[in-house]
């Protein structure tokens, strides 16, 4: 069973539907025991960094997330869920993130001809051997919706990147922790393959 962490963020149900399409059991929950008993955990979400951290703290989920990660089970952050795994975001100065991964979240720089938020399909430059991207062609297109992006301090954890006004770390993986800035649940067959790879870890 896959636990999808419920902290009042948007987009939880679409992740659950994508897992259902793959024949996987999932449960949207904020119950500590259910999350820790799950085989794998997903932290999805859209919204603001500061509001999300406030909700995670309010529901006592920050410690649960750390426990789940420390247990070694596969853990996947999606969109805002990726950003929360890092140390801080310029979107919410003074609000610490979960700090599970080293790095920060920055605003996409303004660039003539490019709209922010970045909404749409972009191609990925995939690192050979990246576990989430087994069977996914380098240059595959995935769907993004974001105004802020991840800059990992340790380049070795970057599994895929894209270009949109700047060089964006689009996916990271470190030990049992995986995360995507894009939305695999909205990225057609490529996204379903990425989620299937996660389910098979």
Describe the structure.
There is one protein chain. By secondary structure, this protein is of the alpha/beta class. It has a single domain (2-199), classed as Class I glutamine amidotransferase (GATase) domain (Rossmann fold, 3-Layer(aba) Sandwich). The protein has six helices and 13 strands. It has helices spanning 12-21, 32-37, 49-58, 61-70, 80-84, 188-199; strands spanning 2-5, 26-29, 40-43, 75-78, 88-89, 103-107, 118-123, 125-126, 141-146, 148-152, 158-163, 167-174, 177-180. The protein has an eight-stranded mixed beta sheet, sandwiched between helices. A three-stranded mixed beta sheet has the order 5-6-10. Strands 7-9 form a two-stranded antiparallel ribbon. β1 (2-5), α1 and β2 form a beta-alpha-beta unit. The mean pLDDT is 97.
How is this fold's topology laid out?
Elements: E1 2-5, H1 12-21, E2 26-29, H2 32-37, E3 40-43, H3 49-58, H4 61-70, E4 75-78, H5 80-84, E5 88-89, E6 103-107, E7 118-123, E8 125-126, E9 141-146, E10 148-152, E11 158-163, E12 167-174, E13 177-180, H6 188-199
Parallel strand pairs: 1-2, 1-3, 3-4, 4-13, 5-6
Antiparallel strand pairs: 6-10, 7-9, 8-11, 11-12, 12-13
CATH topology: Rossmann fold
* Global shape: globular
Number of domains: 1
Contiguous uncertain segments of 5+ residues: none
CATH architecture annotation name = 3-Layer(aba) Sandwich
Rg, nearest Å = 15 Å
SSE topology string: EHEHEHHEHEEEEEEEEEH
Strand order of the largest sheet: 2-1-3-4-13-12-11-8
Helix content: 25-40%
Structural class: alpha/beta
Main beta sheet strand tally, sense and closure: 8 strands, mixed
Q: How many strands in all?
A: 13
Average pLDDT taken over every residue: 97
Number of helices: 6
Through-space gap between termini: 13 Å
- Give the strand content: 25-35%
CATH superfamily (homologous) name: Class I glutamine amidotransferase (GATase) domain
CATH class type: Alpha Beta
